[in-house]
Amino acid sequence: MNYNVNEQGYYGEFGGAYIPEMLYPNVEELRQNYLKVMSDDAFQKEFKELLKEYVGRPTPLYYAKRFSEKYNTKVYLKREDLCHTGAHKVNNTIGQILMAKRLKKTRIIAETGAGQHGVATATVCALMGLECIVYMGAIDIERQAPNVARMKMLGATVVPATSGSKTLKDATNEAIRDWINHPEDTHYIIGSVVGPHPYPDMVARFQSVISEEIKTQLLEKEGREHPDYVVACVGGGSNAAGAYYHYLDNPDVGIIAVEAAGKGIDTGQSAATSALGKVGIIHGSKTLLMQTNDGQITEPYSISAGLDYPGVGPMHAHLFQSGRGEFISITDKASMEAGIALSKLEGIIPAIETSHALAIFETRKFKPDDIVVVNLSGRGDKDLTTYIDYFNL
Ligand SMILES: *Cc1c(COP(=O)(O)O)cnc(C)c1O
């Protein structure tokens, strides 16, 4: 079984490029060039150098001693929370801004929900001196004032999407419309392993630096490159794709994907796509998504903004359907408690997205000598008010 993308842009039956004809030239230009550009030595040199000097890579692979003792297994944390801007997202935006420059694009657009991808995009546009337009639902703009302020400070223009539910999917529609109208000079930076081919593959490759580093670091610490399990939370699936990437074809490595159950899978307030989704098309890609019987996308819910997405990337849909990945869903409550647990045991306050991955140890048992790597996708500073309100801190 092949778990990576094939020539046609599919992972099993998932993926492809289901796009309006008017978008075809833009996506096709990217498809024809992305592998060529990424395999260029000068491109790799510049990418690696920025990851080192600007992002602060390699991020540590930290043995969490007290956390391990509590759960009677060996847990390593891949510290993506220590990346510049506080999460893994910047690995991808650095890669894509360099891609945009190679394709001679001078204008960058993005869509954002909670604003985290918008901030990561505005950051690299400031770094490169490129114009940056971020589409964001009008309601999200109200809810996420600090990230809107960050984007403005970084020089980006934040454009409200005022149609529909005024949230992420409407912002995505606006960004796509913009791209159709500016095919020559504009690159659209998508923030996860979603969207039409080649985006899922391109983003997975940029994020694959995570598992590339885990291999080297684990060899140093444990004498072997592979853990028994690699665990990551899945919104769209980019931090997970990066953490799994170099282990996809190694059957000795168990792949564990953690989704947001929200208030519970059966409550109608959930984002657990593998449990609730059916095959459909979202964001130009065939994948699993939460939808009504007539195929209307269902509004997802999670306490964590980054997991509040009605689909998963096609790689993950395939990992689920083929049985290669073990999918676990975690409620708001369990994730919030895991966030406190890690803070008190290790002095690390995780993002609530990440807390979902940490929560599995309460129910999923591992052997004492299992080596389990958890991708610590982001830090909790951005979630402080949610933690405060939830626990009356
Ligand atoms: C955005 C985000 C996620 C979810 O996005 P993926 O593409 O699934 O990785 C997870 N954790 C953090 C900290 C995030 O900022």
UniProtKB/TrEMBL annotation:
The modification N6-(pyridoxal phosphate)lysine is found at residue 89. Residues 56-378 form the Tryptophan synthase beta chain-like PALP domain. One of its GO terms (molecular function) is tryptophan synthase activity. It holds the Pfam family PALP. Pathway: Amino-acid biosynthesis; L-tryptophan biosynthesis; L-tryptophan from chorismate: step 5/5. Its cofactor is pyridoxal 5'-phosphate. GO terms for cellular component: cytoplasm. It catalyses: (1S,2R)-1-C-(indol-3-yl)glycerol 3-phosphate + L-serine = D-glyceraldehyde 3-phosphate + L-tryptophan + H2O. Keywords: Amino-acid biosynthesis, Aromatic amino acid biosynthesis, Lyase, Pyridoxal phosphate, Tryptophan biosynthesis. It is an enzyme of class 4 (lyase). The keyword Amino-acid biosynthesis applies. HAMAP family: Trp_synth_beta. Tetramer of two alpha and two beta chains. Belongs to the TrpB family. The beta subunit is responsible for the synthesis of L-tryptophan from indole and L-serine. This is Tryptophan synthase beta chain. It comes from Cochleicola gelatinilyticus. The lineage of its organism: Bacteria, Pseudomonadati, Bacteroidota, Flavobacteriia, Flavobacteriales. The gene is trpB.
